[in-house]
Amino acid sequence: MRTPTKLFTLTAVGLVAAAATGAPATAAPTKQARAAWAPADSAAIHPGVQMYTDGAQCTANFVYTDTAGTTYVGYAAHCAGTGEATDTNGCDAGSLPLGAKVDFVEGGSLVTEGTRVGGGTLVYSSWLAMQRNGETDEDACAYNDLALVKVDAADTGKVNPSVPFWGGPVAVNTSGTAAGDTVHSYGNSSLRAGVELLSPKQGTSLGTEGGGWSHPVYTVTAGVPGDSGSAFLDADGNALGTLSTLALAPLAGSNGVGDLSRELAYAQATSGIAGLRLVPGTEPFRPIL
Question: Would you say the pTM of this structure is higher than 0.85?
Fold first, then answer.
């Protein structure tokens, strides 16, 4: 029996996971509506940036866009949760409403205030979508943990879609992972007090659970409170998933990574956002650890 928990510590939110039904996610976007992005080495908003919602801190996963060229940044739906760390069922857990304000922050720790670099608005939550739709799929309720924040118009010029250190994503992983496959991530918990050397992580997938909706993983250092929502890439640099839970049993110390292809498909089917899709990184994937 899997025993997951979200990770909360003071102002730092943890992790959850899930899934749902819907049309398959497109492996690679057919076009990029934005003509240009901020340079990767100077962009203030990017995968891995800290995101604060009503005092709770999580980490951005990927950048998304739509038919109109709107810019979204993803994190975990539970990052806007209002319940306890054990509230991991998205079909009945409490959440802030759509329209909640989110701040993008660089640096800082639990005792040192970081620098606000931009803002946005919560426009999609898999938890709220499942509750609205009366979702009954137990795997979906347990593992679908994706939210989208629409970047304020004044801050869209600060965005780059590349994952720091690793580069990518190349496309969306639609085949999952097998036990032993290499995975890469970039956490940015305020607990690390801005020590960037601790942010890049490489690890190993333990396979798949929840009917393909989640991938338990071990990394050299496990995800910690505040890493919730952060990006996971597969061995080829494709967007595999979003960091969601810490498992207490049977795989103590492992993290649950929500399958992005299924989470994105659910969002495409229920968010009302036309043409929602992942934006590939402008920087090539570099598996250099």
Answer: yes
Tokens for 67, please give them.
Answer: 């038919």
Q: Which of 171, 192, 12, 185 is nearest to 85 (CA)?
A: 12
Count CB atoms within 10 A of the CB of residue 72: 24
3-state helix, strand, coil in the chain (%, to 5): 15, 30, 55
DSSP secondary structure of 66-133? -TT--EEEEE-GGGGB-S-TT---TTT--BPPTT-EEEEEES--SSS--EEEEEEEEEEEHHHHHHHH
In a domain, 40, yes or no: no
Domain containing 238 equals 3-34+45-278
Owner of token pair 């620098």:
115
- CATH number of the domain that 269 lies in? 2.40.10.120
Residue 284 belongs to a domain: no
Other Cβ atoms within 10 Å of 143 Cβ, number: 34
| Domain-located, residue 231 | yes
**Do residues 167 and 48 lie in contact, with contact meaning Cβ atoms separated by under 8 Å?**
no
Q: Which of 110, 109, 78, 72 is nearest to 94 (CA)?
A: 78
Tens digit of each residue's pLDDT, the chain (289 residues)? 234 444 332 343 333 333 222 233 334 444 444 558 999 999 999 999 999 999 899 999 999 999 999 999 999 999 999 988 778 899 999 999 999 999 999 987 766 778 999 999 999 999 999 999 999 999 999 999 999 999 999 999 999 999 999 999 999 999 999 999 999 999 877 765 555 656 799 999 999 999 999 999 998 766 667 888 999 999 999 999 999 986 544 555 678 999 999 999 999 999 999 999 999 999 999 997 5
Q: Count structural domains, the chain.
A: 1
